[in-house]
Amino acid sequence: MEKPRSARDDEFTAYVAARAPWLRRVAYLLCQDWHRADDLVQTAVTRLYVNWRRASKADNLDGYARTVLVRGYLAEQRGGWGRRVRVMESTPDEPAPDPPADLDLRRALAALPPGQRAAVVLRFYCDLSVEQAAAVLGCSTGNVKSQTSRGLDALRRKLERPVAEGER
């Protein structure tokens, strides 16, 4: 028997209220921009609502929501939105000083291609197995392994500190 619409809406609202901060952090790690992360979360939440009847029956609702979020991010990357739209951030407060470029993991993560970034975030931030990440990304386990390996290699190269003469 199907739940009344108001009960489904209450269930959906409770889920989104509880998990929105987590979804926003995952979205930020993917796109490296808080405004864009908010847009990604809004798109994912909208898709989740449209499919709530199916989503609410999923064994792992967080996994379902994460999959919707990551696939939305990758679809946006393929569509070229990031190349066409440049959001200029202006804040009234002074921003915190940037850490040295060689120590900024976020900057290094942002430099990765979208597929590698998604694989690294899913594997190490979301703590998914290769098989789980492949299911989220809709690709083979070999592709996840390859994207993760390339992403980690690129991060290591980017974050490697040059050895000073006196340190040898």
Automatic annotation (TrEMBL):
Family: Belongs to the sigma-70 factor family. ECF subfamily.
Record SUPFAM superfamilies: Sigma2 domain of RNA polymerase sigma factors (SSF88946), Sigma3 and sigma4 domains of RNA polymerase sigma factors (SSF88659)
Domain RNA polymerase sigma-70 region, chain residue ranges per copy: 18-72
Protein name per the record: RNA polymerase sigma-70 factor (Sigma-E family)
Keyword Ribonucleoprotein: no
Domain RNA polymerase sigma factor 70 region 4 type: 104-155
Keyword terms, alphabetized: DNA-binding, Sigma factor, Transcription, Transcription regulation
Top-level taxon of origin: Bacteria
UniProt cross-references to InterPro entries, sorted A to Z: RNA_pol_sigma-70-like (IPR039425), RNA_pol_sigma-70_dom (IPR014284), RNA_pol_sigma-E_actinobac (IPR014325), RNA_pol_sigma70_r2 (IPR007627), RNA_pol_sigma70_r4_t2 (IPR013249), RNA_pol_sigma_r2 (IPR013325), RNA_pol_sigma_r3/r4-like (IPR013324), WH-like_DNA-bd_sf (IPR036388)
